[in-house]
């Protein structure tokens, strides 16, 4: 791994930590709050690509595990990684990898709408399809009601998917994917 990739991974882990400083919106009927950190997941995958994007989220999770209070609401340590939020958090590197993989595949023909679709499938649906069942299992709730309750995240997550796509398209010229595809 190149030094530049390691720096990008650390930078995006820090960006996701900064997004965690924005107060979460707690919901009374589901133990997982609404946060902006999934925006960082989509940005990491779309801007950095599959390998570096996933690495940035793995680094972020390691920092959470060692106790840094970088999750939304200032939480950190092992509790969020074994509690109701665990499935969502552990889905983030998978989502960043998948977003990066799909972005790299269509990079020469990348359009905003394609990136919105990629973010919607892997940054919204995939995260919720992993996170909600894990949340349901941990809270001893049937999976279908858990999935139904997680539908509350969809409108905000779709807005984040659009924002992330627009930002990545605007910053496309300096993306590591651009260097990989065009050798810039």
List keywords for this structure.
single chain; 184 residues; mainly alpha; Arp2/3 complex 21 kDa subunit ARPC3; two-stranded antiparallel sheet; 9 helices
What structural category characterises the helix and strand content? Answer: mainly alpha
CA(first)-CA(last) distance: 18 Å
Helix count, DSSP H or I runs of 4 or more residues: 9
Quote the beta fraction.
under 5%
CATH-derived architecture: Orthogonal Bundle
Tally of DSSP β-strands: 2
CATH top level assignment: Mainly Alpha
Estimate percent helicity: 55-70%
**Low-pLDDT stretches:** none
Q: How many domains?
A: 1
Instruction: Supply Rg.
Output: 16 Å
CATH topology: Arp2/3 complex 21 kDa subunit ARPC3
Shape: globular
How are the strands of the largest sheet arranged? 1-2
Protein name: Biotin transporter
Family: Belongs to the BioY family.
Main location: membrane
Subcellular location: Cell membrane
Summed up, what is this model?
It contains nine helices and two strands, in the order αββαααααααα. The chain is mainly alpha-helical. The model has no long low-confidence stretch (mean pLDDT 95).
Protein architecture, described:
The protein has 184 residues and is mostly helical. It has one domain: Arp2/3 complex 21 kDa subunit ARPC3 (Orthogonal Bundle). Helix content is 70%, strand content 4%. The chain contains 9 helices and 2 strands. The chain has a two-stranded antiparallel sheet with strand order 1-2. Strand 1 and strand 2 form a beta hairpin. Helix 5 packs antiparallel against helix 6, helix 6 packs across helix 7 and helix 6 (112-138) packs antiparallel against helix 8. It is globular, with a radius of gyration of 16 Å. The two termini are 18 Å apart. The mean pLDDT is 95. The chain crosses the membrane at residues 7-23, 29-48, 55-79, 85-103, 115-138, 144-169. Belongs to the BioY family. One of its GO terms (cellular component) is plasma membrane. It is a multi-pass membrane protein.
């Amino acid at each position: 791994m190149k030094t530049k990739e390691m720096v990008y991974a650390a930078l995006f882990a820090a960006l996701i930590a900064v997004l965690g400083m924005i107060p979460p919106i707690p919901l009374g009927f589901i133990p997982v709050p609404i946060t902006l950190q999934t925006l960082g997941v989509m940005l990491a995958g779309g801007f950095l690509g599959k390998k570096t994007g996933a690495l940035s989220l793995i680094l972020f999770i390691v920092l959470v595990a060692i106790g840094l209070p970088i999750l939304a609401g200032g939480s950190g340590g092992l509790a969020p990684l074994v509690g109701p939020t665990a499935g969502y958090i552990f889905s983030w590197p998978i989502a960043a990898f998948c977003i990066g993989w799909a972005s790299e595949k269509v990079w020469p023909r990348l359009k905003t709408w394609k990136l919105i679709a990629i973010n919607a499938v892997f940054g919204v649906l995939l995260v919720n399809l992993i996170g909600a069942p894990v949340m349901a299992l941990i809270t001893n709730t049937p999976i279908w009601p858990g999935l139904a309750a997680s539908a509350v995240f969809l409108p905000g997550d779709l807005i984040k998917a659009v924002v992330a796509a627009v930002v990545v398209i605007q910053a496309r010229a300096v993306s590591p994917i651009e260097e990989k595809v065009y050798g810039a």
